[in-house]
Specification:
The structure is a single chain. This protein is an alpha+beta fold. The chain is 37% helix and 20% strand. Strands 1, 2, 4, 7, 10, 12, 13 and 14 form an 8-stranded mixed sheet that branches. β16 and β17 form a beta hairpin. Bound molecules: ligand BES and zinc ion. The site of zinc ion has 4 residues, from α5.
């Protein structure tokens, strides 16, 4: 009897992983989606796609399950560049459809006439060879050089370039997929693998099946296909990459299992069963992408000494902030990235100690202050208006670092003994839902601030969310280790020899900081030669240090940095590194021909995410 009651109580409290019925949720209005979810809303996507590496297309069908208002006569999907062949009802009747006018960034609405009843339709389609989400690599662009490679990047609104669905982060969907690729390629998706080795389907093709039965925003549907090897790291962790990189990747990711343990202490149980990491070819345009169950990362984090693993802490943290509790619209992006940046730092502190966490937090805060000085004030608010713009324009350090600063400030105001239970509660209360900044405010008021009037006044939420700049009440972050690097940067800029700098035992973040300080200082060619010869910066295996050094060299128009700069810009495609370097080069008559020459050679190797940005810089 008691056990039965307890079970009932547990069932009543447990949040379903799938969506509540139509009546209980209407997703927040999203200016980046054509969907009208109040009429008909997609709840499940079932893909059956074949990858053709010759024509660079995915083709096949997407069967969508939806909930509808009884009187709904149409369902509206998001598409961009898809070739729609036909749309069928469940009983294989051909359904009428039309594509709306093309809107910049957003693509086209696909409006399908619904039959009087039924909750499933099938869209037969193929993708365009230049689908923005997909990068098709030639064998020459891979590490192994023998096989082609395909991967997707869905965030923010690119999933619609390969899947016709309602592409809004407020419209959560479960999915399953059957993906057919030529042998011997294998396929990884952000879902549970049902056929780890694939099954032969004839004609030298293999099919791989996947199932994701936890509802996710569509930007988290992800795929990669290539010559992939796998190595287990722990009971629920592992790494996929091309065979040539496997050993190096596995060593760098050694601490992953421990990271999950630390994250669970803060966020509550890890809910996605597995956490694997896919190390992509160098063109991957981001540092990392938090695709559920399998984070995608750039190979530029393989420094050889685990010095860049905070990026993994970041993507792992998204398993709570972002994937479990998702920004309902791209104007609420800070709910994903600010929480994650805060959470990332707590994981780093738990694993590697306070000094390292403080260095990272300070580097982030410094970046924010530098960036905000050059930004339109309206874009330095946490709740930002992106109507008529590409959501990409909201990807600045503001959602990351101003968002994190809000949480640091709350933490410091109430102490961890009060803050941590609230944070864990926040993830549980909103698990598997997409929320707005307003819902965050309500949660904070009801669950943390309550009747603490002093706290409410001290925090001044409107200043954080709706006003520009960093509120004066923001808690300060200061790293003593970085202050030492400041001292040495000052000494060097005043003429001290590189060999006289007190750098023994420095952490990579101290180097990064020293170089960031030196970028705006007028150093002479002989000082730059001294710096590079003494510390071998041009040969650094740490991509952040190399990047910071190259920026120093470019700022001073120092010819010896051009060869390593060219290697760096052609050897990897991470936009965070490409954008500032091309921008710096384009600012001077010295740099412009260098930028144009390098970009002409490198452009075709970049993912669209990067080339579109750089197209706007190098002209
Ligand atoms: N989710 C982001 C990447 C992203 C953001 C893709 C917006 C598309 C649109 C990911 O979690 C991220 O923030 N990556 C950072 C690394 C992180 C350590 C700051 C990156 O790629 O640089
Ligand atoms: Zn992130």
């Amino acid at each position: 009897m008691l056990a039965g009651l307890l079970l009932l109580a547990a069932l009543a409290c447990a949040r379903p992983d799938t969506l509540p019925p139509m009546t209980t949720v209407t997703p927040a209005p999203d200016v980046h989606s054509f969907a009208r979810p109040a009429e008909a809303r997609v709840t499940h996507v079932s893909l059956d796609l074949q990858a053709d590496f010759t024509t660079r297309r995915l083709g096949g069908r997407a069967t969508l399950t939806f909930v509808r208002r009884p009187d709904a006569s149409e369902i509206v999907l998001d598409t961009r560049g898809l070739e729609i062949q036909q749309v069928l009802s469940e009983d294989r009747q051909v359904l009428a459809f039309r594509l709306g006018p093309a809107v910049q960034h957003l693509g086209q609405a696909l409006v399908i006439t619904l039959p009087a009843s039924g909750d499933r339709i099938t869209v037969e389609y193929r993708t365009s060879p230049d689908a923005a989400a997909l990068q098709w690599l030639t064998p020459a662009q891979t590490a192994g050089k023998d096989h082609p490679y395909l991967y997707s990047q869905g965030q923010a609104i690119l999933t619609r370039t390969w899947i016709p669905t309602q592409d809004s982060p407020g419209i959560r969907q479960t999915y399953d997929a059957t993906i057919t690729v030529p042998r011997p390629l294998s396929v990884v998706m952000s879902a549970k693998s049902l056929t780890p080795d694939g099954t032969d389907v004839g004609n030298r093709q293999r099919a791989y099946r996947f199932k994701m039965d936890q509802s996710v925003p569509p930007y988290l549907i992800a795929i990669a296909a290539g010559d992939l090897a796998f190595r287990a790291l722990g009971p629920r962790t592992g790494v996929y990459t091309e065979p040539a990189m496997l050993e190096r990747a596995a060593r760098e990711l050694e601490d992953l299992e421990q990271m999950i343990a630390a994250a669970e202490t803060l966020g509550g149980p890890y809910r996605w069963q597995r956490y694997d990491v896919l190390v992509l070819p160098p063109s991957f345009p981001y540092g990392g992408m938090e695709n559920p169950r399998v984070t995608f990362v750039t190979p530029t984090i393989l420094a050889g000494d685990k010095s860049l693993v905070s990026l993994l802490a970041h993507e792992l943290a998204h398993s709570w902030s972002g994937n479990l509790v998702t920004n309902a619209t791209w104007g609420d992006f800070w709910l994903n990235e600010g929480f994650t940046t805060y959470f990332e730092n707590r994981i780093m502190e738990a694993l590697y100690g306070k000094p390292r966490a403080l260095m990272l937090a300070t580097l982030g805060r410094d970046q924010l202050v530098r960036d905000m000085a050059a930004m339109a004030p309206a874009d330095t608010r946490l709740s930002i208006d992106l109507e008529g713009r590409d959501p990409d324009e909201g990807t600045t350090s503001v959602p990351y670092e101003k968002g994190a600063a809000l949480l640091q400030t709350l933490e410091s105001a109430v102490g961890r003994e009060r803050f941590d239970p609230w944070l864990r509660g926040y993830f549980n209360r909103h698990a598997f839902t997409s929320i707005t900044s307003k819902q965050f405010v309500v949660d904070l008021q009801q669950e943390l601030i309550r009747d603490d009037k002093a706290l409410l006044d001290a925090i001044d939420l409107p200043a954080w969310l709706d006003q520009p700049g960093l509120p004066a009440a923001a808690v300060a972050v200061r790293s003593p280790a970085l202050a030492l690097a400041d001292d040495q940067a000052r000494r060097f800029s005043k003429g001290a020899a590189a060999s006289s700098l007190a750098v023994a035992g420095w952490a990579p973040q101290q180097w990064q900081h020293l170089l960031e300080q030196l970028r705006t200082v007028p150093l002479s060619p002989s000082q730059l030669r001294d710096l590079d010869a003494t510390f071998r910066l041009s040969a650094s295996g740490n991509s952040e240090i190399l990047f910071a050094w190259l920026r120093v060299g470019v700022a001073r128009q120092f010819p010896p940095v051009v060869p390593p700069l060219e290697r760096f810009l052609t050897g990897q495609g991470r936009r965070k590194f490409l954008r500032p370097l091309y921008q710096d080069l384009m600012q001077t008559a010295w740099g412009q021909p260098i930028a144009r020459r390098i970009y002409a050679a490198a452009r075709s190797s970049y993912h669209t995410v990067s080339s579109q940005t750089i197209d706007g810089i190098v002209k």
